[in-house]
Request: fold
Amino acid sequence: MANSWRRERWDSLRLLTPNWLSRLPGQHYAGPDPDGYMSMGEVVEFIDRFAAGAPVRTGTEVTSVRSADGGYHVSTSRGDLRCRAVVIASGACNVPVVPALGAGVPAAVEQVTPFGYRGPESLPGGGVLVVGASATGVQLAAELQRSGRPVTLSVGEHVRLPRVYRKRDILWWMHHSGVWDQRWTEVDDLDRARRLPSPQLIGSPDRATLDLNALTGLGVELVGRLAAVRDGTALFSGGLRNVFALADLKMRRLLTAFDEWARASGREDEAGPPEEFPPTVAPAASRLKLDLRGGEIRSIVWCTGFRPDYTWLDVPVVDEKGRLRHEGGVLEPPGLYALGLPVLRRRRSTFLCGIEDDARDVTDHLAAGL
Reply:
């Protein structure tokens, strides 16, 4: 139960969604800080409380699911099960992705993923190269820089968002404006939407914005996307200004859409006046090379995304990229379903507040099939 939050997250991690938005079917946050963000331990407690009384088998590893006699045979570490339907709810972040170029990193440089990182003390002393500038990358870069270690952040495509816009949490706007309720059938480029990096957000008690300008202010050095490692040297792409300009443009378009929604819906009085945010400041000259053999960098943290693990699934429903082939969580073989994947049925599908509607749709289909 809540295994990833118990064992596969760093100690300081908090939810990106405010507490008032954290909900499961029949359960809402009822604590004293609705605008705060749950810590790792609070998330575990929240999920445990929801599951109390349900027939949940903890400490049980599923080793195989295969078709059998019009249903499915499920092999586990605690015996076998036979069933007419299976819902795959194992998530999309089972395995951290490390690019193949990591093989060229000198042995003296320690390499870790977010699954192996607990805090700054888990890394050797000295400089750190953080690769990836989504939510995980910016959070770990900030934590490491504040610990006194010099940090270099390799930045590629990213989603920039303010934590608070017009005195409301940015996810208030996503929730109330209906952006998060956009269905998978209404998304123009569904494949791209499902592969977008997580937005640059952090759930800190002070509701701070953690974008690249904030990291520069902390002293983090920004470089381009890590393109190769050759002869012990990291090579970074140029064009940071263009990467920053594109992220800034997309953020402004989204905030403008929120402004238009507020006017059209008569909710202008619920928020402060529209805000302007300064553009992301590019360094005067970013490094294109970094010698990994000289001792400046002692460790690399790969914040380069995750992928699901379906090695236990003995049914031909996985594509060449290791992703489930499904239509809104319904797989082609009768009785096989999925939940908890990016934009499964709505843009909010991977958040706690998004599972209820998705689960209801999927289980209605399942019940009709049975």
Observations:
- The radius of gyration is 22 Å.
- The longest strand covers residues 62-68.
- The domain at 96-306 is CATH 3.50.50.60 (FAD/NAD(P)-binding domain).
